[in-house]
Amino acid sequence: MSREGGKIRHENQGPESLLGSAHSLIHLVEYATGSIVSRVILKQSGGNVTLFAFDQGQELSEHTTPFDAVVQVLDGEVELLVGGNPVVVRAGEIAIMPAHVPHAVKALTAFKMLLTMLRS
After folding, report:
1. What's the CA gap between 22 and 11, in Å, rounded?
2. Cβ neighbours of residue 53 under 8 Å, at least 6 residues apart?
3. Where are the beta strands (DSSP E) in 1-120?
4. DSSP-derived pairing of the beta strands 36-44 and 85-90
5. Distance from first CA to last CA of the chain, Å, rounded?
6. Bridge-partner residues for 113, per DSSP?
7. 102/56 Cα distance (integer angstroms)
8. Tens place of pLDDT for every residue, the chain, 120 residues?
9. How far apart are CA 85 and CA 88, in angstroms?
């Protein structure tokens, strides 16, 4: 997987800081100009849950993963290219990207998503 445009920045607070309390997903990761910001919410052998904030125009080039992934858009709008088909996903919507199917990500606006990767 590669990124085009700005850099990917990983938030430093680990998942342990979230245990046992309620949190607003949309406020757990902030936008950064010209960048993609990620924050791991949960990492287990069966999968990962990660928050992302993409500045407008940021992209991840086409790649594949060996796992199914659920994209839940929390804010803004993104175009996913899944198996060559463009899929626009807006705040409040989800899309499922199947394992081993090429996909790409392009921020149509600044957007935030919760990505759940299922390994089993």
Report:
1. 19
2. 29, 30, 31, 32, 36, 37, 38, 110, 111, 112
3. 3-4, 8-10, 36-44, 47-54, 59-63, 68-75, 77-82, 85-90, 94-97, 103-107, 111-118
4. unpaired
5. 21
6. 52, 73
7. 22
8. 444 455 565 556 666 677 777 888 899 999 999 999 999 999 999 999 999 999 999 999 999 999 999 999 999 999 999 999 999 999 999 999 999 999 999 999 999 999 999 997
9. 10
Q: Position of tokens 């960048």?
A: 35
Q: Which two tokens stand for residue 12?
A: 């430093």
Give bridge partners of residue 44 from the DSSP assignment.
Answer: 47
Look-up of token digits 């935030």: 112
AA identity, residue 82: V
